[in-house]
Amino acid sequence: MRTCVLCVFSLLFGAVLSSAQTAPPSSVPGEIPIFDLNAIDKNIDPCVDFYQYSCGNWMKNNPIPPDQSRWGRFNELFEHNLYILRDILTEAQLPGKHSATETMVGNFYNSCMDESAIEKKGIAPLTPELERINGIKTKAELIQQVAYLHRNSTPALFAFYSQPDMHDSAETVAYLDQGGITLPDRDYYIKDDAKSVETRQKYVEHVQKLFELAGDKPGVAAAEAKTVLTVETGLAQASMDRTARRDPKNRDHKMTLAEIAAAAPNFDLAVYFADNGTPKFTSLNVTNPDFFKQVNGQLNAVPLEDWKVYLRWKAINDYAPLLTKAFVEEDFQFNGQFMSGQKEIEPRWKRCVKATDSSLGMALGKLYVDRTFGAEGKERTLKMVQGIETAMRQDIGQLTWMSDTTKKKAYEKLNAIVNNIGYPDSWRDYSSVAIKADDYAGNMMRAAAFEVQRDYNKIDKPTDRKDWSMTPPTVNAYYRPSMNDINFPAGILQPPFYGKLMDDAVNYGGIGVVIGHELTHGFDDQGRKYDAEGNFREWWTAEDGKEFEQRVDCTANEYSNFVSVKDDQGEVKLNGRLTLGENTADNGGLKLAYMALMSIIGDTPVKPIDGYTPAQRYFLAYGQIWCQNVTDQEARKRALTDPHSPGRWRINGAVQNSAAFQQAFGCKAGQPMVAQNACRVW
Ligand SMILES: [Zn+2]
Fold first, then answer.
1. CA-based nearest residue to 593, from 374, 394, 378, 375
2. Distance from residue 593's CA to the centre of ligand 1 (Å)
């Protein structure tokens, strides 16, 4: 059904663009079912496998579309939003009167959709970048070039950005960080299991192909690809692993510029900062000083010519999705097909809508909000947030393991949380970015450079707590420890997370748990280390801290036993430490939203709907949010890189620990959905 709708409208869309007379009929598919009785597999006992019970038929009836590597309820909604955004962008290109914002996003989208203009340009957009790198004569010029690449948002060698000061969050400061690898995690370069060895081999072949497309002879390109792997392996070996990075103390190294420059002289940081577009500053946070000390030796040992090969690769890789079909396809073959198991590339229009959202999302987002998000949505969400905050207050009050001293501080932190709902108070001004209807690569790079400059401009200034880090159409939500705020973009405040006409049980099991999840992030293994102002500061008594750590250890061990993927290449279990914050937030969110729901329902008997009590509907709504199918390749990649557990364990992991769930479905001790040693933090 979906595929058919898409085919018909792809054709229509092409025709309309050329005749350009009237707006095409909207292609937005109907609303997504929020509580789907047809998704349930009634052959399964909910106390044996609740995920399978909630989602069994959904999984059977919703195979992964060929242009995706993972397909779940989030994706359904995201896809729904893509159609709405496409309508907005298509209309913005039609003749007639348009606002400046409409014209800008319309031109951007057009530049991406105009594949024949892109083919005609060939590799011309990339050529000046490669020439700049070829012209490097000294290591000082190498660092200048890295600064230039960073200003244009091309990642290379290390990372530089701004963020709130870890100890004085009111002030934003400069951060110097590890970086420069291309594969999604350092482990790909370091591990010696068969899959990692295969990945490196495929990666080298891929790098060679892109060098060839950029004009190098096969023999030369093959040697260059090996050089790239050697250089990146050195960077990977110097990098801190993901799990260690979750602990803020491992990232907390305030230094003066002079100190880090002296510790890693070969980086020529004075040259890097001389004209990199930042305001002048004297101190910064170096997230991983060891990276700079270790790579300092590599900078000296690796010949300049090899560094130039590496930088050329970083530029080619960054530009590949913006260039001709040959580049785009090679990029997809490796990153989409091999790394994620995606069978087909997404249709051009989807990629172009996403590119517009990622480049000009705070302009496109305004048009999206105007069309979809009413004040009513904001009010109802805010009311739920307040109810769930009240539940957390009660929950903290009831804890037997936490002293009153720490509780007082916890209340302070909870009361200070800022709730941002829907979209930012003021819209970003992109008027300084030149957007042309026939220059896709140029548009992408100028928009990216604009964001880098916006980020640099924040250095040594008061922190802007109103700045959002997700665009309004995004189907997601986030908590920022350094801001102590929770943020819900308009994109997620709709079915299947929230339905205007649905009963409270279903809405609390959907968006309610998401709210409780974000709130709990302020008090997970990472978030608890930040205070009410967002400063990295101990506010727990030593005794309470110990009690907390025991409880999260339980969760970490529990999830480490869950199998993420099992295929002919072996079994991969979840990393309970990497996913600890998210699992803690899932367990806490499920408890808090339930408490808030029960305080609304009170003692008044509520009739079952569709044969389910409100409590059962609550847990089922939660279960169905996480229905998903995923390729083995994508599951493997995520087991290594994603701090979230896969859908199955987000459900079964959390309900196993929930007495309210077990009561709702009458589960008995000894059944799989009743953990022998239930873990409970919040
Ligand atoms: Zn989360």
1. 394
2. 15
Residue 141 CA: distances (Å) to CA of 33, 135, 267, 492: 57, 9, 11, 46
Q: How far is it, in rounded angstroms, from Cα 109 to Cα 435?
A: 10
Could you tell me where the beta strands, DSSP code E, fall in 446-499?
461-462, 478-480, 485-489
Distance 625 CA to ligand 1 centre (A): 14
- Measured in Å, residue 128 CA sits from the centre of ligand 1 at 41
Cα angle vertex 57, ends 52, 58, to 5°?
95
The alpha carbon of 478 and the centre of ligand 1 are apart by a number of angstroms equal to 6
518 is a catalytic site residue? yes
Q: How many CB atoms lie within 10 A of CB 191?
A: 15
Give Cα separations from 173 to 94, 265, 281, 325, 664 (angstroms). 44, 22, 9, 41, 49
The tokens for 450 are: 């604009």
pLDDT tens-place string over residues 437-472: 999 999 999 999 999 999 999 999 999 999 999 999
CB 368 within 8 A of CB 80: no
Q: Which of 659, 590, 579 is nearest to 620 (CA)?
A: 590
Are 54 and 623 in contact, with CB atoms under 8 Å apart?
Answer: yes
In the set 224, 586, 634, 642, the catalytic residue is 586
Which burial class, exposed, middle or buried, applies to 192 when counting CB atoms under 10 A from its CB (0-12, 13-18, 19+)? exposed
Q: What is the pTM of this model?
A: 0.93
- Exactly one of 389, 395, 518, 524 is catalytic; name it: 518
Q: How far is CA 426 from the centre of its chain?
A: 23
- 288-328, pLDDT tens digit by residue? 999 999 999 999 999 999 999 999 999 999 999 999 999 99
CA–centroid distance, 579 to ligand 1, in Å, is 9
Residue 212 among the catalytic residues: no
Identity at 411, one-letter amino acid code: Y
Query: Rounded to the nearest whole angstrom, what is the distance from the C-alpha of residue 474 to the centroid of ligand 1?
Result: 14
